[in-house]
Amino acid sequence: MLVDERRHRIAQLVVARKVATVAGLSEEFGVSPVTIRSDLEALEKQDLLKRNHGGAVAPQVLRFAPAFQERTSVHLLEKQAIAQRASELIEDGDRVIIDSGSTALLLARKLRDRRLTVLVNSVYALNELVGAPHIELITVGGSLYEQGMSFVGTLAEACLEKTHADKVFLGVNGVSRKGISVNNIQEAGIKGKMISAADQVIVLADSSKIGIDSFAYLALLEDVHTLVTNSDIDPQMLEEMNESGMEVLVV
């Protein structure tokens, strides 16, 4: 892992967890405590965290979007497993859209060495894939939705109307017999255009989102080709998802 990438992830972890220790970070990233202290010093100079005795804490004023970082840290192991399984659905040469969900970000991290065309609307996913040697990276421009650090609105949607992808990987807030849904209209618009632009719609949702009806619906279950979720899904809900006709991959 490159120094900049490690420091970026350290900053993300501190923001999500509010506090971290040198010893814990040293073990997690497989580097020496001296290296971690150097990383924390560099990040403090960028106002991304505050060092304290034995580690660091999140600052009161953050450059990262706190709500997004907190979502990234919830059910992290399950999301990582879902992202890994999703990455196996991508073939070299594919044109893929990756949206701004936290699980989608974990997927983006797994694609740096792949040969792909990737379209993103997430600032975080863009940052993850910049410099990837074999990826043609395309970003959707538009209005910045700060809570998710993603581009939304009419300009972003217009860009998607002129594109075609093999697969779209969507993060959602709810999956129920009524369809897939998200918490706000701003994200619903851009995700809806992503669905229209892709041949295959693949939803990434941990089991806590199954059976949930959120605020704004994106599509019916019949419009989703694949759902990737984790094994804590309720058996009855799993049966209902399977009966909808979409493929359900459980990790």
Keywords:
Arc Repressor Mutant, subunit A, 251 residues, 10 helices, three-stranded antiparallel sheet, Rossmann fold, alpha/beta, 2 domains, globular, seven-stranded parallel sheet
Mean pLDDT over the full residue set = 88
Largest sheet: 7 strands, parallel
How many discrete structural domains? 2
What is the count of helical runs? 10
Unreliable segments of 5+ consecutive residues: 61-67
What is the ordering of alpha helices and beta strands? HEHHEEHHEHEHEEEHEEEHEEEHE
Strand order across the largest sheet: 6-5-4-9-12-14-15
CATH architecture of the largest domain: 3-Layer(aba) Sandwich
User: How far apart, in Å, are the first and last alpha carbons?
Assistant: 26 Å
Given the C-alpha coordinates, what overall shape results?
Answer: globular
Output the CATH class name of the largest domain: Alpha Beta
Q: Over the alpha carbons, how many angstroms does the gyration radius reach?
A: 18 Å
Beta strand count? 15
| CATH topology value of the largest domain | Rossmann fold
Output the structural class: alpha/beta
Strand share of the residues?
Answer: 15-25%
Q: In percent, how helical is the residue content? A: 40-55%
